[in-house]
Amino acid sequence: MAKVTVYSRNNCMQCKMTKRFLTEHHVDFIEHNINESPQYVDYLKDRGFQSLPVIETESAQFSGFRPDKLKQLAI
Questions:
Q1: Against a cut of 0.85, is the pTM above it?
Q2: What is the mean pLDDT of each run of 10 residues along the chain (75 residues)?
Q3: Which of 56, 68, 13 is nearest to 32 (CA)?
Q4: What is the CATH number of domain 4-73?
Q5: What torsion do the CA atoms of 16, 21, 26, 28 make, to the nearest 10 degrees?
Q6: Which sequence spans correspond to the domains of the chain?
């Protein structure tokens, strides 16, 4: 299974929904919360992201709660 990283922030409903989806589908992920680790803000901006969550795998990056793309990670 691909390594999955979720960049999130506090009080973000889409972040919560994404993490819940991954957990319910037994997809292991690493979370980086930008409220606790603000150094990731520049990392995400450098890659063109302006909203959270950002989901990163070895082969793809996307933002927002995207069940269609998240399902592909659960396969």
A1: yes
A2: 89 98 96 97 96 95 96 87
A3: 56
A4: 3.40.30.10
A5: -40
A6: 4-73
